[in-house]
UniProtKB/TrEMBL annotation:
Residues 1-154 form the Ribulose bisphosphate carboxylase large subunit C-terminal domain. InterPro entries: RuBisCO, RuBisCO_lsu_C, RuBisCO_lsu_C_sf. One of its GO terms (molecular function) is magnesium ion binding. This is Ribulose-1,5-bisphosphate carboxylase/oxygenase large subunit. RuBisCO catalyzes two reactions: the carboxylation of D-ribulose 1,5-bisphosphate, the primary event in carbon dioxide fixation, as well as the oxidative fragmentation of the pentose substrate in the photorespiration process. Both reactions occur simultaneously and in competition at the same active site. Heterohexadecamer of 8 large chains and 8 small chains; disulfide-linked. The disulfide link is formed within the large subunit homodimers. The gene is rbcL. The lineage of its organism: Eukaryota, Viridiplantae, Streptophyta, Embryophyta, Tracheophyta. Keywords: Chloroplast, Methylation, Plastid. Pfam families: RuBisCO_large (PF00016). The keyword rRNA-binding does not apply. It comes from Chaenomeles sinensis. The keyword tRNA processing does not apply.
């Protein structure tokens, strides 16, 4: 035994919004403090509904990005993860499995740090070397904490 507290993120992702909400309600009834949602496979509207429910009921919403590589790793077409990160921030979530500059979810260091800033900072200056093509002022929109596997934050 390590004496460390372990946790579990109950996955609320489902084939319908109704089933997703049932799972979130069940998690709350169990006393689970964190619900997980795959925001790309579940959809932005479903994610926003779940984010509102979690916020209203004292639950944290962990975002997983299952299927992202099909969308954001294509060099000739697709949607860059910085765009998906902005969409998530507008949709809602408390933290996201964002990957790091090494390991399975690796990416280019400056680009990864650029979308990490877009997720968590209130104001991000234009910096093309980091993939930030215009200044972004999020004003009072809550940020999303990027996390790596194993609970180590970026």
């Amino acid at each position: 035994e390590t004496g460390e507290i372990k946790g579990h993120y109950l996955n609320a992702t489902a084939g319908t919004c109704e089933e997703m909400m049932k799972r979130a309600i069940f998690a709350r009834e169990l006393g689970v403090p964190i619900v997980m949602h795959d925001y790309l496979t579940g959809g932005f509207t479903a994610n926003t509904s779940l984010a509102h429910y979690c916020r209203d009921n004292g639950l944290l919403l962990h975002i997983h990005r299952a299927m992202h590589a099909v969308i954001d790793r294509q060099k000739n077409h697709g949607i860059h993860f910085r765009v998906l990160a902005k969409a998530l921030r507008m949709s809602g979530g408390d933290h996201i499995h964002a990957g790091t500059v090494v390991g399975k979810l690796e990416g280019e260091r400056e680009i990864t740090l650029g979308f990490v800033d877009l997720l968590r900072d209130d104001f991000v200056e234009k910096d093309r070397s980091r993939g930030i093509y215009f200044t972004q002022d999020w004003v009072s929109l809550p940020g999303v904490l990027p996390v790596a596997s194993g609970g180590i934050h970026v």
